Amino acid sequence: MMTSTGHDSDAPEPHDDAVPGDGAVGRAAFSALLEDSPEDLYENAPCGYLSTLLDGQIAKVNATLLGWLGYRREELVGRRSFSDLLTMGGRLYHETHFAPLLKMQGQIGGVALELRAADGRRLPVLVTSVIKTSGDGQPQLVRTTIFDATDRRAYEQELLRARREAEQERRRLQELVTTLQASLLPPSLPQVPGLRTATLYHIASRDEVSGDFYDLFQISRDRWAFFLGDVCGKGAGAASVTSLIRYTLRAAAAYDGDPLSMLTTLNTALFREYRSEDPRYCTVIVGVLTPDGDGFTVALASGGHPPALLLGADGEVAFRQTRGGMLVGMLADAVFTTTSVRLGPGDTLLLYTDGLTEAHAPASGTGDGRYGEEALHAFATGLGPTTAEGAITALAEVLRGFGDGLTDDAAVLALSVPAAEISPSGKGRL
Is 94 inside any structural domain? Predict the structure, then answer.
């Protein structure tokens, strides 16, 4: 029994890729559509083709390139050279670079040039040329393939525009960082009677606010306070902590000019303000200068900071150790250490952040490549008796010598009592 469906049940189902037409004739017609002639492929290729004689005269050109440039075939073949189609800059490059390299190498590819159309338009292109040789290796003509690079040029211009905008944004960021950094440091140190001061400040990156800080200020008629430290981290977060530290220490010094009390007050402020998932802390050394005859007595307190370095008038160099002092702001009941220094005529006191001693020196005295306290001590010993200015000038040379090894910010504060026997250069005795 059969059911009528309008089709023979034994007939094959049609396929989506069936050849149009009927039988062998249809298949042949369809195949003919797929087989363009070599000449048609040449003329209407998606790129421009050009053949020139060895002197550059155009011998053959395809319809694609003629359409791009707006020329008739008879206007170019036998009448123009390839370089005639280039812009002035492209022609100069072709004559001085492209053509000589092609002659030496036999081929050259992917060179960006600009063609000038009949109506004056500029067409960015990528050019590849090959020298065709005869059977005996003699050059016969030059075959050139030309790709339209308009989209690529637009993409490159967009990248260039984005790069310029990024550079402008970076300059604005650097200006903002510079302005913010300047607001966190004293514009200049005040003059302290009987004392010479000098500072050195190096920022590892112009794109981030440094966490190093220092200050010197008067707290009574004849007493002066100073501090130098390093905040954990960089950027806006470090800037806010640095601002809090500076004003807290100044206020604490005005209330109670004892270095240990100043650090205790600062620790309480930092711990209360930043005891969260993002704690903030710092290392800092605080000092108070009190006149003492022909010099000063310096009371120091340190919270986790590298020791001060005393360069004596007699040439002796010694660290004023303050080991045991804890990081400021880390614990509610942090313990800090104190020491006292006599700063007499010809003596220089040097305070610094660890960006100096942790720099990777080209020829350091430590196994891990860091400059280290030993290298700093040896360097200071070589200075002999010096001045604040002399020490800072010499250390600036050291920092420059680190080059890329100086990856962290570094701040240095130098205090010295003038002595008649110290030379103006700050190095050695008169």
Answer: yes
